[in-house]
Design goal:
Layout (H helix, E strand, L loop, with lengths): L2 E2 L4 E2 L5 E2 L2 E4 L20 E3 L27 E3 L11 E3 L3 H5 L22 H13 L1 H5 L9 H25 L11 H9 L5 H26 L12 H28 L6 H21 L8 H20 L21 H34 L8
Antiparallel strand pairs: 1-4, 2-3, 4-5, 6-7
Length: 382
């Protein structure tokens, strides 16, 4: 049975530290704010300690009060490394220290090391692992969010889900954009059936799914989060999918809206078009700024896959001689592979390489500074 310690200890800089007793041999291996240590009494292990400033936890802890067995210990705390724990214990019972594993238990997030050569990658991955292992705290709004608990859930539902339902309904039922050319009933039926051929409508559909998914994740996190139990827990796979979609949409919505106004807009856009190509992007940005979810660098791969997928789709549309409602063999005139293959290829390559690089680094950088300003103080690293 886990029971919280009655008192709190302090690091050398005076930061209060909460400790949890667990049976010997059990060790909650978590994220950077969790510095594992051993209370070498032969009876218990103190395994979950949160620091206000873990980066300075290298200094030795003062001598602990008497353990249940009447022994004392001096424990040197070191910053947690996701791929390895370092625990220095001055103990009468060294067997206890040996019971602590060097590796994270199964289920906890491990850093991606393949791109460690990229500047800032290592620290970003440490932060990602911390966020994932404390997912309930993050998604319930208790770490870095402007809104908490059911206020955050209400924001997701009323602002996100309801807003995207309205935008989707406007986009599906809007016929005003067809009035510049005479269309037969058959052509209008084709236009209705081809709603999902457009990049904008891809983004809107994914956005609607994301806000529904994020609302469910927020509700589950609210039920899961317990401020009296600081232990990390493995992030469920469906939460990771929602997190990845959040990162993806920030890049995709911003890029899609910019491309529309730069390449496609004729200057006479309708109200519905503004909602499709501006309001949806603003909604995604506001969700990001309010919730404060981290955008890891590693999530840039999803933007790359998305861009490749849509370019591939335009090639399939062209290669199968599919026609839009105007009878043209392209989705967008700027991606006309038949008449302008060179410019279509150049634009496609620019989107595939520049969009993931630009937005895949911009939003992670913003998220780092955003979270430093609003994070729970016990998670601050400096």
């Amino acid at each position: 049975m886990i029971r919280p310690l009655a008192d709190t200890y302090s690091t050398v800089d005076g930061t209060p530290v909460n400790a949890i007793f667990l049976p010997v041999g059990q060790l909650v291996c978590g994220s950077p704010p969790l510095a594992p240590m051993v209370y070498p009494s032969g009876l218990h292990t103190i395994s979950g300690i949160r620091f206000g400033n873990p980066a300075e936890a290298v200094a030795a802890m003062p001598a602990m009060p008497d353990a249940p067995g009447g022994q004392q210990a001096n424990v040197a705390l070191k910053p947690f490394e996701p791929d390895r724990q370092e625990i220095n214990v001055s103990s009468l019972n060294p067997v206890v220290a040996e019971s602590c594993s060097d590796q994270l238990p199964d289920g906890y997030e491990k850093p991606i090391t393949a791109l460690n050569c990229i500047w800032g990658w290592v620290s970003n991955e440490k932060s990602r692992c911390e966020e994932y292992d404390n997912w309930a705290e993050v998604w319930s709004g208790n770490d870095g969010s402007m809104l908490k608990g059911y206020f955050l859930l209400a924001f997701k539902l009323m602002f996100g889900v309801l807003g995207m339902v309205l935008i989707s309904a406007f986009a599906i039922t809007d016929k005003e954009w067809m009035t510049d050319r005479t269309l037969t009933k058959e052509a209008m039926a084709v236009a209705d059936s081809q709603y999902l051929i457009y990049l904008t409508n891809w983004a809107i559909t994914v956005q609607l799914g994301y806000f529904i998914h994020a609302s469910i994740a927020t509700y589950v996190a609210i039920q899961k989060y317990n401020p009296l139990d600081p232990r990390p827990s493995p992030c469920p796979w469906w939460i990771k999918i929602c997190w990845s979609t959040h990162s993806l949409l920030l890049s995709v919505c911003t890029a899609t809206d910019l491309l529309y106004w730069i390449l496609l807009s004729s200057g006479g856009s309708t109200v519905v078009s503004v909602f499709q190509h501006a309001v949806n992007g603003v909604m995604q940005l506001l969700d990001f700024l309010v919730t404060g979810h981290m955008v890891p660098l590693s999530h840039g791969i999803y933007t790359l896959i998305y861009c490749i997928a849509y370019v591939t789709w335009t090639l399939i549309f062209f290669g199968t001689d599919t026609r839009n409602h105007w009878g043209d063999n392209y989705i967008y005139a700027v991606l006309d592979w038949r008449s302008k293959p060179g410019s279509a290829a150049l634009l496609s390559l620019l989107c595939i390489f520049l969009v993931p690089i630009i937005f895949g680094t911009l939003f992670p950088a913003i998220s780092i500074y955003r979270r430093k300003a609003f994070r729970n103080p016990r998670h601050k690293i400096g």
